[in-house]
Amino acid sequence: MKKLLALGLAAAMTVTGACLLASCNEGSDDSITVGFIALHDDNSTYDKNFLDAIKAACAAKGIDEDHLIIKTNTPEDNTCYDKAADLVDQGCDVIFADSFGHEEFILQAAKDFPDVQFCHATGTLAHTAGVANHHNAFAHIYQGRYLAGVAAGMKLVEMYEANELEANNFDADGNIKIGYVGAYPYAEVVSGYTSFFLGAQSVVEEETDISVSMEVTYTSSWFNERAEREGANTLISRGAALISQHADSMGAPSACEKAGVPNVSYNGSTAASCPNTFIVSSYVNWEPYFEYMIDCVMNGEEIAADWTGTLATESVALTEFGAAAAEGTAEKVAEVRAQLESGELHVFDCSKFTVNGEHLTSYMADVDTDDNFTPDHEAIENGIFYESKHRSAPYFDVRIDGITELSES
Amino acid sequence: MKNTKEPFIHITRREGMPLWKGLLIRAAAVLIALILSDIVISAAAPRSQGFFGFFGALFSGAFGTERRIWLLFQDTFLLLGVAVALVVAFKMKFWNLGGNGQILMGCLACAICLKYLGGKLPDPLVWLIMLVASLAAGALWAVIPAIFKAFFNTNESLFTLMMNYIAMNLVAFFISYWYPNGTATMPPLTEGVLPPLGEGQMGKSLLPILLFAVVTAAIYLYLRFSKHGYEVALIGDSKNTARYAGINVKKVIIRTLILSGALCGLVGFVLTGSVNRMIHDTMDNNMGFTGIMVAWMGNLDPLIMAGVSFFINFLTRGMAQVCTKFGFTSEALSDTVVGLVYFFFIGCEFFIRYRVHFAGRQNKQRGEETPTPPEDGERKRAPLSKDAGEKEAN
Amino acid sequence: MDEYALQLQNISKYFGSVAANRNIDLTLRKGEILSLLGENGSGKTTLMNMISGIYYPDNGRIFVNGEEAHISSPQDAFRYKIGMVHQHFKLIDIFSAAQNIVLGTKGSGLARINEEVKAIAEKYGFEIDPKKKIYDMSVSEKQTVEIVKVLYRGADILILDEPTAVLTPQETEKLFLVMRAMKEDGKSIIIITHKLNEVMAISDRVAVLRKGEYIGCVDTADTDPASLTEMMVGEKITLNISRPEAHAERPLLEIRDLTVNSDEGSHAIEKLNFFIRGGEILGVAGIAGCGQRELCEAIAGLRKIESGGIYHEGESIVGLSPRAISARGVAMSFIPEDRLGMGLAPSMSVTDNMMLKNYQDHGYGIKPLPLSDEDTPEEAKKKNARNRFTEFLNRHCPFVDRKKARAEAERIIKELDIVTPSTETPVRRLSGGNVQKVLLGREILIEPNVLITAYPVRGLDINSSYLIYDILNRQKEAGTGILFIGEDLDVMLALCDKIMVLCHGKMMGVVHAEKTTKEQLGLMMAGALDLEEEKGKPMGVAKDTRIGEDQA
Fold first, then answer.
1. Given its phi and psi angles, is residue C314 left (phi above 0), alpha (psi -120 to 50 degrees) or beta?
2. For residue A297, what pLDDT band results from cuts at 50, 70 and 90?
């Protein structure tokens, strides 16, 4: 017994000694240090998108792995502040947080640590808060959604002409039904599904004499596999011929694969797990922003308060087309893309949609967030609703005709 | 007649074990769990820092900076507060599994006060109302199952568990009511929140640390020295005996659960009033369940529970750093290691309580546990054919 | 070597550091009845459990019919044709006798079972109805089922563990007849018992165990109860329970037409009438489940009564809380089968158990200031005011006073010779006898005037039992009225002044202990003799069984 005790003590002492030695080598040099705060981890398509981009950006800019500190599973509460502060303690020069609910805490951290840059995706406060080291970023993702919608429209036309659609795939007016699984009923999601719808609608109306209609269901969560799967199944059982989503798990795509219904994904290709039904996915490519962000910090330049990536900056991107995509999709999408880039075509063209039967001529959007959501900016100019112009995060929350929200759960 | 085999292994209960030996076995179990995890992690990590780097990262994650140390103690005392709240009920063998819900109700009550009264009434008054509301909300959440148990003998484990879900959905409801165009998040409130007790991280962490240190000491005294505590222990030990002593068991159950729930509500008060200043539906951070582990592993003794809470938080915070340093972007690993430690800790209880015997060593004398055999052993081992006609033996 | 049906060589069994059996040699000849005699706690049941496969020995060897046997489960035991009838029956209530008998065997159809069972019964003289459900059976019928179960499986060696504990004297006689018949048939039987007269009546040889060790084995014909006791206890002791003269005092506790329901709703006690005088021990005899427990609980205030009255010193105590009843001096000590179920908290210390009944009265321990004649009116008024204040404080003190309780604990430990490492030891670590002494000691501490004690010597060794009898006698001499509920008729006949017999909750009669016989008691317990209904006054019936107008 005594021998065991002695052995145990010796082992404990060795381990402690080694640990102390091992922890004593936080080197410092002249590379900048980048900190990253993720909402979940790489099991969520949302975060994985960001994580892949920051790793690629750091590699491109010559920042080694020791100078990129990643903290995952950060809930949207004070833990975010604590992690941000901890990153500052570890010598970060710039810190990025990826979820909407992180913003208030990042803002607080920005106020407390004025020498460090804080960047935040999908946030809305930077342009009014007046804190110099707090910045927002997003992209014109609605354009990507529109293009994905075009691909969806091509598929719908193909199915229609091949008589693959069934009776319940048409609504009462004879339009093809599609479905969309959304998370929360607010601007970012509404903007996404509306642009998707408009893209699909443009192709179907162009190639046939019918149109599309869309049903939307909300899951009240960014990541809830079961709810998303059930949402997709509900829409399919109500006759959706195609499904898209704004949700972070594999729930909806896998439901579509099982039911054999084509799926347009978000934030990454699901071709590997859904080979038969994956058409395409739009996503925000954060690499350009991250490289911009790192450059500014390295050169001591000011980062923009609101940075919105475009097709031109390659911030808005589509994945490879899947096996389910219709023939000629790639060409069509490239064609529409060129039109968007040149300014010839606008996604939120008010002549292309109606609200309660009328075309909009004016709309006050709530751009400067306040507790009462007071609309403050006129968003429509010359018949075009300019999304993401006054701030990077979307503010199109108009409910247009042709789209029905199923449940406000 | 078939011969049956001697059993290969058979198990006997140990009588008792000296304290130091038991502690050593438990410490060894934990260490083995950590070493095993270390071996697997440092072998499979994308950016392995090596075997000793694992322990380095563990310690650095827990103690590396001043901020980390304060946060470690803050988390320790919050968890300890929950565990103490649960112990009050557990001593009575009332399995209060509703800690999460009770904490959330405390958070919610506090949030409601902040939202509607913050800035409109003088701050100290708001704090007082918040405190009372949080205690009452937590107590209410615990007392409803208690009443049903006392009068209808419903199963309290199930009932308290179900109340957790109700609380979670209530919180979600309020958030979506206050912020309908949002993503189920709310910004931190600024009016009426509890002030920090000093500068920097220390200022923010001191309130939970001091408050729950005092609460732990108070509950310890309550359970050990007060008449109420005596009644609680008695009911937990033998309900019949408690009735015989004239205790109104129903009344005591309800009274005790009010206390248990109120203490959880107090944790919610601190979480919403000071630490986060807002609320979301998983703000309890599962402390209601981790608290059960702390209470059990701490043998329902507040001092040991403090140590256990400290160790669990040390491990959790340390593992987060390990994940970061070793290049894991999934923190499920952290939970796995903590789970493995629990598993080994619980498993070693078997070896503390029982001794395993292997066949073939049956007839050997066993060391320190056999009392000395009688001196006249010779007589007893003589062959037995001679008992015929044996008269009175003395 | 083939002489022996069963042979144990150097068998030991340890539970932790406690040696339940140590180096035991035992033999059982073919076709004999061997009594295994020993006090409670001597290791008899443990030894037999090893033969029947419930435990596995730590040391030693077992030989069955000359061959070495390894018995590691009851199935193995049956393979060796060993069958045990346990003290606590292992029967399934909702099955019939036949179904229980074939339980676990690869059976034939039920019809054949009934025939086979009837055949066994006739061979040995049992009375058994194979189709009857267990819950309809009396205790002795259940025991019969257990024995037939064992015989059905072909047992040649039977072990009966305390079979007569639950039987009336008449039933015991019947059992002995059956045992002799089985012996005639060549079966070998071990009967575990601690009752000397039964040992003398039925067995061929007696093996004696004491404190886990084998003392020796004698032929019954060559011994007598005194020598056997000496072997069991290790010293010569007198077997007499003294019975001091009872003074006839006024009745302290009167029970009138009491009806109490059991937990299932049936009448546990029906229209019971009796009273307990001070300075007298009234015994209550009856088979298990005759209502004793419900009677105790009703008197102590733990169970609601359906109708009737309970009067203590003339005042009704029905509906009072247990505390209030206890405050009047009515003490109850009930030792249930698991010994720690009621009255004591097993995990709490002796000290904590001592304050069970009076902890609510604990105060800060501030003593009042004594008034003296030399105080001026001013000073007296001040002192009074201060005393009222301290009394108020003491009454509302939220803390328990363990010092006081510890002192009480030390007192009874000394007076009753309780063996415990300290006053803070959890009660469940004490051995059975000491637990019962703690319980009785606590009840006596309040200086009761009525003491109800149920099974106070259950499971105790002889010395402890006699100590308890002494305590009871001393209480009796001090004027306490004692209600003694017990299971050993011999003890009750020696100790009690009067004995009341209950059968299914009804009173069968109250008799003077010195004028009655075990047979008469046995008949009453079985319900075959009801003295209440007898016209006139047969011999032995106590005159004052009814409450008359002439109260003393």
1. left
2. very high
Give the model's pLDDT for residue B380.
Answer: 34
Give A236's Cβ-side CA count (13 Å radius). 22
- The domain spans of chain A are 34-121, 141-407
Q: How far is B132 from chain C (nearest CA, A)?
A: 23
Q: Does B65 touch chain C (CB under 8 A)?
A: no
Query: Nearest-CA distance from A354 to chain B in Å?
Result: 22
Mean pLDDT, to the nearest integer, of B81-98? 96
Structural class in CATH, domain A34-121: alpha beta
Distance from the Cα of C288 to chain B's closest Cα (Å) equals 20
pLDDT category at B366 given cuts 50, 70, 90 is: very low
Chain B positions touching C22 (Cβ under 8 A) are 373-374
CA distance B308 to B13: 26
Measured between CA atoms, the residue of chain A closest to residue B183 is A184
Contact C202, C33 (CB under 8 A): yes
| Rounded distance between C-alpha atoms, residue C206 and residue C221, angstroms | 10
Cα–Cα distances in Å, from C410 out to B82, B226, C360?
A: 39, 22, 20
Looking at domain A141-407, its CATH architecture is 3-Layer(aba) Sandwich (3.40)
CB contact under 8 A, C356 and B245: yes
Residues of chain C with CATH 3.40.50.300: 4-233, 246-329+447-552
Question: Does pLDDT of B383 surpass 60?
Answer: no
B153–chain C Cβ distance below 8 A for any pair: no
**DSSP SS3 for A76:** coil
| pLDDT number for residue A1 | 56
Q: How many CB pairs under 8 A join A and B?
A: 101
Predicted local confidence at residue B385, as pLDDT: 33
Instruction: Flag whether residue A78 sits within 8 Å of chain B, measured between CB atoms.
Output: yes
Is B381 at the interface with chain C, CB within 8 A? yes
- Cα gap A281→A253, rounded to integer Å: 11
Q: Alpha-carbon Rg of chain A, whole angstroms?
A: 24
What top-level class would CATH report for the domain C4-233?
alpha beta
- C65's CB contacts (< 8 A; 6+ apart) are C2, C4, C5
Find which of B55, B171, B183 to mutate to test the A interface (most A CBs within 10 Å of its CB): B183
Q: Name every chain B residue with its beta carbon within 8 A of the beta carbon of C69.
A: 3-4
Q: Which CATH class is domain C246-329+447-552?
A: alpha beta
Integer Cα distance of A308 and A122 in angstroms: 10
**Using CA atoms, how far apart are residues B11 and B357, in angstroms rounded to an integer?**
6
Both tokens assigned to C202: 């039925």
ipTM: 0.82
Nearest to B329 among A23, A41, A108 (CB): A41
User: In this predicted model, what pLDDT tens digit does every residue of A8-18 receive, in sequence order?
Assistant: 666 666 666 55
Q: Which of A34, A86, A224, A366 to mutate to test the interface with B (most CBs of B within 10 A)?
A: A86
CA distance B90 to chain C (A): 15
Nearest-CB residue to B330 (from A8, A41, A187): A41
Q: Do B331 and A41 touch (CB under 8 A)?
A: yes
Regions in chain C scoring below 70 on pLDDT: 1-2, 107-110, 236-240, 247-249, 335-342, 432, 533-552
Name C137's Cβ contacts closer than 8 Å, sequence gap at least 6. Answer: C97, C145
Q: What domains appear along chain B, each with residue ranges and CATH number?
A: 17-48+326-360 (no CATH), 49-325 (1.10.3470)
B185 at interface of C, judged by CB pairs closer than 8 A: no
Residue type, C552: A
CB atoms under 10 Å from CB of A339, counted, come to 12
What CA dihedral angle connects C456, C457, C463 and C466, to 10 degrees? 60
d(CA C517, CA B33) in angstroms, rounded, equals 71
